[in-house]
Specification:
Blueprint (H helix, E strand, L loop, with lengths): L29 E3 L10 E7 L3 E4 H19 L4 E5 L5 E5 L21 E9 L4 E7 L4 H12 L6 E6 L1
Antiparallel strand pairs: 1-4, 2-7, 2-8, 3-6, 4-7, 5-6
Length: 164
């Protein structure tokens, strides 16, 4: 939760030195009609971050599912193209502590506290696009509503920008 929200240190990515990183929860970055031309979808909406923060892969996946479900229900599955622009590359670490009986003999406390890989997040800056959705003009209100519903999955503040 709150320990993994703010940008504090440099990006720590998966490499030959940082092994054993769990796979990100988000797998699909493109949804809808991916091959639609630009003149087919005249409307475009962006979900933009208003803070410097980290968005977990789980939150990105939950927001993607929420907005995709809303648009496919309201506008149909071929009426839009959605892309997730934030990628979870930054590796989180956790210093696991035991909390069972007899754990005091096994624990080292803060000695050797460099943690093990725990999950991945996307580092997002101010005015960086998190999602964008292209669609037909008649589905525009549903697209904006879908992005507003996906805002609830993220910490911090976001805004929806749209262009015709």
């Amino acid at each position: 939760g709150r320990c993994y929200r703010y940008l504090k240190n440099k990006p720590y990515i998966k490499s030959r030195y940082c092994r054993g990183v769990p796979d990100p929860r988000i797998r699909i970055y493109d949804l809808g009609r991916k091959k639609a031309l630009t003149d087919e979808f005249g409307f475009c909406a962006h979900l933009v971050s208003l803070e410097n923060e980290m968005l977990s892969g789980e939150a990105l996946e939950a927001a993607r599912i929420a907005s995709n479900k809303y648009i496919t229900k309201m506008g149909g599955k071929d009426s839009f193209h959605m892309r997730v622009r934030a990628h979870p590359y930054h590796v989180l670490r956790i210093n696991k502590m035991l909390s069972c009986a007899g754990a005091d003999r096994l624990q080292t406390g803060m000695r050797g506290a460099f943690g093990k890989p725990y999950g991945t997040t996307a580092r997002v800056h101010i005015n960086q696009v998190i999602f964008y959705i292209r669609s037909k003009d008649n589905v525009a209100t549903h697209v904006v509503e879908a992005l507003c519903s996906s805002k609830f999955e993220f910490p911090g503040r976001q805004k929806v920008l749209f262009f015709f």
